[in-house]
Amino acid sequence: MKEMICICCPMGCRLTVDDSDLGNVKVSGNTCPRGEKYGKEEVVCPKRMVTAVVRVEGGDVAMLSVKTREAIEKSKIFDALATLKGVVVKAPVKIGDAVVKNVTGTGVDFIATKNVATR
Prior knowledge:
This protein is an alpha+beta fold and about 120 residues long. It has helices spanning about 35-45, 75-80, and strands at about 1-5, 15-20, 25-30, 45-50, 50-55, 65-70, 70-75, 90, 100, 110.
């Protein structure tokens, strides 16, 4: 049994997750289906959004914030961040533009989180 607080919405439900059988994880304490899904994923294969910054060439700012389009497995976070080492994007950049595609074979892209105009 594990106890956790759901982070899917502002309700912050206190979940109790019975993970004694990983093939049949049971969640209680949730007030919506998202809490049940979160509790199951958190014990079987936890995932997180990853945020970082990369350099910009020729832009009105020097750095661009990026994030993964979707959450990725926690075990792949450091490898995902390593793919950004040395990445420099050229302005202009639009919110949602893919900066690095298919990060560490996850099928998930790092995307721009803001617009960057050229100088």
